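Reviewers asked in the last cycle whether our approach scales beyond single polypeptides. To address this, we selected a multi-component target totalling 663 residues and predicted its structure end to end. The input consisted of the following lines:
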Amino acid sequence: MRGWMFLGTFLVGACLSAHADPLELKSALVFTGQATELRRDLDPGWLSGVPAKQYTGAAVIDGKWEDLGFRYRLDYDQVRGSEGRSVFNNERSSGQLLQLRTKFLLSDRWALRLGKFNENFDNAHYAHVLDFLKDNITSSDTEDLAARVRGFPIAKLSYNGERLGADLIYSDDSSTNTTYRFNSQNPNFNRGIRQWLGVLRVNFEETYVTTLVQKPSDMRAGFGAAFVHTPNAQMQLYGALFSQRGSRQPVLRNIYPDGASPLGGDDIYTNSGSYAATRLMEDRWYTRGMLGIGWTSETQLNLRFEWRHDQSGMSPQDYRRWGQIVDFHRSLLRQDRTAAAFNIAWDAQALRARQRDSFLLRIDRPLDNDFSIALGALVGRDRSVLWQPRLRYSPAGKRLDAWIEFQRTAGREGSEFGSALARTQVQVGLRYLFD
Amino acid sequence: MLAAERPHPSALLAQADNFRQQDESAELKVKLKSTKDQKPDGDSEMRVRLKGADLSLVEVLSGRSAGQVVLMSKEAVWVRMPRASLPIRITPIQRLMGEASYGDLGRLRWQDDYAAQYQVNAEQTVNDIPVWALSLTAAKPTAAYAKMDLYVARDGGWPVQAAFYLKSGKLFKTARFDKPVKLGSRVLTQRTVLSDGVDSTQQTEMIIESVTAKDFPSQKFTLDGLME
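The resulting structure, written as structure tokens, was:
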């Protein structure tokens, strides 16, 4: 509702202006169908709420009027899943203002930008170490074919010089409800907070360096840097680092390094005895980093390799403890099936940060003017793998765009991806762009 | 002719560049026509905005890549795909359409990216036009081509023909430049024919339809500018 009012105000303004350029509107229809097969031993009570099937139809409207641009999404969603008592078959329709952007040029070098949009501070394909203004810091959906990316409310003052640039950014997303819950796509991560960012960008010919400081409203300030180096026309080397006291990722108390610490007011409880601890105001410094390389062959084969390290993830020792906790909760299934199942499902989801290291290898190549193929492999330290092949049909000059993407987790029992909740996922997508 | 009578290679290169980009900051309307085996294989129109030696913004207005916007700066090439909410960074060699690379549109001044010297056989004739034969090597790692052979008319200094090579030494494409014509108040090469290095039946004509000297704020050539 608030989105409609926001959009309506701008559109009325657009119509009232006597000297304005006409409002340009473009629309698209997007359909996605997704089927997921879960590892039942990690959710024996069918509690996770991850839908077995999900169908979404959406109309997306992109508008532009002078210096104002927006994207609005109206969608209908149907999810089906589970069995027995926990069967669900829900339908939902909603409208949401995804993006809104306007600028005020203060001079040739200075600009103020206001609206609801996203910012990108590193060059990662998967491990977005510095993406404080995106939903997820480990996402490889860079193309956003399904038009789902939601902006953050942002005010950004920018200076852009020959070699030097600087941004001062304030974002207030505190109105977004981010209660930690099962099956949340982004449990309490970047959303729902206010944050300040100071960014300095320096260009050294073939190397581009970004340094920044971020102060979220619920944590202490953190410091980061990123670089991109282009040694030749075919290659890019890039990396990023961020360090902060405390971590936004909660952890199961039983494997917490300081397990004996008293419970805090922000600790997250389940209603059956298992609980996670917040690390937001912890004194310990946590660092996360990423190194990557991208290479394009003369035949247009693109290769990308990324290594991600996150100290707030689990160490091998933590991971063994996690396995023991899951085994313990499993052993309780015969005594109190409901409580045990609840705990196991919680264990499986509470640890999305997983282990500290992961590696991404991605290959993509256009097959001809219409087809392209991509294969991604996200590998854990224990050599378990998340495979992601994708075939895309995007006929040149046409309005149709279709894709099919598989995700399959594989690995020995107890390994990172071998114990991921989702075993297989298939997504089929179709979008039609109206001009 | 004695070597002393030859113009300095870099001066000759600057002279050739002058028939491609005269203004420090300008907006160009460019049309691309592709043919394969002499049959039409797609048209495309673009708006190219240039600022200084390094910054360009290419907006594809029609054709198979309509809606794409490309930002080229000294160290990066960014593409915004149609209706995308975030830009994608690509390597400079990545080709997104036909025989024309974005570098052919967005980097019109060779003198900024290449070092020139005369070929051993510096005086040649191309299509009955006496030319100076130059060999260009990339002076910046990010230059789209590792090496170029450029043939510049001895009478007038306009570019006549070029061959573009990749790092492996492979011939990537060739270009034929029409004799410059008056376009508004400028004399410019209006039509360039790019041919595939292996299959010369694949060709793309690049026609500059208009050039307007125009100053753009620096903010336009940023990632924010790309998204607006």
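The mean pLDDT of chain B is 85. We regard this as preliminary and will revisit it once experimental data from Aim 1 are available.
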